[in-house]
Amino acid sequence: xxxxxxxxxxxxxxxxxxxxxxxxxxxxxxxxxxxxxxxxxxxxxxxxxxxxxxxxxxxxxxxxxxxxxxxxxxxxxxxxxxxxxxxxxxxxxxxxxxxxxxxxxxxxxxxxxxxxxxxxxxxxxxxxxxxxxxxxxxxxxxxxxxxxxxxxxxxxxxxxxxx
Length: 163
Hints:
Elements: H1 8-23, E1 31-32, E2 38-41, E3 44-50, E4 53-56, H2 67-78, E5 83-86, H3 91-96, E6 99-104, E7 108-112, E8 114-115, E9 118-119, H4 127-140
Parallel strand pairs: 4-5
Antiparallel strand pairs: 1-2, 2-3, 3-4, 3-6, 6-7, 8-9
């Protein structure tokens, strides 16, 4: 099933990959495409930082084209002045990356601090990931008015106390 198709069978593939990763002692999985290149995570896209560039698999590398991914690409270029490269990513590039993270609707921005038991960077969330996360949260929470068209205000008819 092509990953571009948001379909229940694709979610099952991610569930199976997650289960296998857990059995093997990992927190989650990174899926490879038919060519053995990095595709995505279970329900999330993968991005890495190396030498000041933001790198992510291209849309023809067996990924689901994510709104979050597209938003981060734009924000990285516009707000952080980063060069963004969309291309095939070899698994071993994750080992030597300065930073790696998942992104998606549920993941938002989730740092990856080790891959195949190799520490990524210094084993902590990196500075570019941190700044991109801050910029992203400012946009989606309506704090950055330059991207007001990206958000839709949701109002409640009346205040409801939280229990």
